[in-house]
Amino acid sequence: MMMWFDPMYFIFLSPAIVLMLWAQFRVKSAYAAGMKIATPLSGASAARHMLDQAGCHDVGIEETHGMLSDHYDPRHRVLRLSRDVFHSRSATAVGIAAHEAGHALQHAQHYAPLALRNFAVPAAQFGPTAFIVLLILGMFLRNPNLIYLGLIAYGGLVVFQMINLPVEFDASNRAKAALSEYGIVDQQGAVAVRNVLNAAGWTYVAATLQALLTLLYYVMRFTGGSRND
Ligand SMILES: [Zn+2]
User: Fold this and answer.
1) Which residues form the domain of 20?
2) What is the DSSP letter of 53?
């Protein structure tokens, strides 16, 4: 069970960890800076306008609790916006709200990577748990096949993260374009929106890198040539 304390794991993962910390710091500072740039519409109104312009009149917008809990729920076809994003008339609010509206537009227009991502959600949800269970079972029973199966299960998370990247970037691009096109942000506001959405994009890149490096680490650990345990 030495593997749980392997310092190599943290050295191996360090690029992803550093990138994640940097991205989270950027999200926080861009979020705060963008809150100070005023816009004529609130986040909710901006998203409503963007949805209506695209003919998505039936997509609802609700307020939800918790900071940065904003998301689009494809099952109920509703945008859930956190309190600040819902009410605030700021570049941060309209940027995040428009990003979530971008996901609703992807859904309405049957944007293929989104469908693929939704299909891969169970792999992301159960992959890591299945991985740990199979890893422990495989080591106890000394059955390498269970370990390989666990690695494949973890691969499901990596695949999900990779499909997720173009989906997130596309939603942000839709948001930036719509906010400028409809005159919801001026040039200064557009820069603030771009900073918020790009910073958020980097957290997805960091999460993908983290999942990929974790998988590589375990693949090397269990299939590599050096069997010194
Ligand atoms: Zn998103």
Assistant:
1) 2-223
2) H
